[in-house]
Amino acid sequence: MSKKEVIHLYKKVIEDLKSLIEKGEYKKGDLLPSENELCRSYDTTRVTIRQALSSLANMGYITRRHGKGSIVSEPKSGLGILSLSGVTAGIGNHKLTTTILQKPVKQAWPDDFFYELDEAEAEAGCIFFSRLRHIDNIPVLYEETHISNVDLPHFSSRNLENKSLFKILKEHYKIEVKEGEQKIWAIHADKNISGLLNIKTTHPIVHMKRRLQTNNKGLRIYSSLYCNTEENFLQDSF
Q1: What's the pLDDT score for residue 90?
Q2: CA distance linking residue 233 with residue 73, whole number of Å
Q3: Which of 21, 123, 188, 190 has the most Cβ atoms closer than 10 angstroms to its Cβ?
Q4: CATH 3.40.1410.10 in the chain, residue ranges
Q5: Which residues contact 169 (CB under 8 A, 6 or more apart)?
Q6: Does pLDDT of 238 surpass 60?
Q7: Residue 16 contacts residue 41 (beta carbons within 8 Å)
Q8: CATH class, 3-72 region
Q9: Region 159-175: what's the mean pLDDT?
Q10: Do 102 and 83 contact (CB within 8 A), yes or no?
Q11: How confident is the model at residue 211 (pLDDT cuts 50, 70, 90)?
C-alpha cells in the first residue's frame, strides 16, 4: 500500500468513527472495537489504527485506557478559528450568533499595536470593530479586528452581525486572504474578558493574535481573539 493510500485510510478511520460517535451509535462510556477488529475491518496495520485512535483521543472523542481499550468520551465540538476560512466556516452545524460591541469605525492605529506596521499602512490608518461570538447561545469568542484602511469604501456602514467578514470582503471588494501568521497563548482572562465570556478570572482561555495578508498587498487584517475552549476544542485541516 502506498503512503498516499495509508494517509487516506487513516483519515477514513477517523471520519468513520467520529460519525458513528456523533450519530450516537457509540455512546459515552461505550467501548470501540479493538485494534485487532479495526485492523481486520479496514484491512490495514495496527500502526495506522493506533494513529487514528490517537487523533480521536486528541480531539476529545475517546479516552484510551491500557488493558481496556478505547472508551467513548462526551465529545466536544470543533471550532475552526485557526482556519483562514474563519469562524463562520469552522463551526459545522452549530448555531453561531454575533453581538457587535463596536461598529466599524475609521481611526488611527493604537500606539501600542501588537504588530509592526509599514509606513504606508501606518499613515492610512485602520478600520476597527469588535464582536462577541456565541455558539449555541454560549459566549465563546471575543474578537477585536483592525483592517488596513485601504480600498474599502463604505465598509464602516457594513452590517457585520451574524455574517462572515471574509465573505463580505470577497463579495463586495474582491479581497481574499492569501496567507497568515498566528501567535497563540494560554492565559487567564482579565476582568473585562471574563465578563464578556461569562467565566471566572481564574478560568484558562486561548489568546490569539494574527495577521492576515490579502491579495491587496497594502491591505492586511489583524485580529486579537480570546476563546473559551471549555465546550469547544480548536481544530483545523491541512
Answers
A1: 54
A2: 14
A3: 21
A4: 77-234
A5: 175, 176, 214
A6: no
A7: no
A8: mainly alpha
A9: 90
A10: no
A11: very high
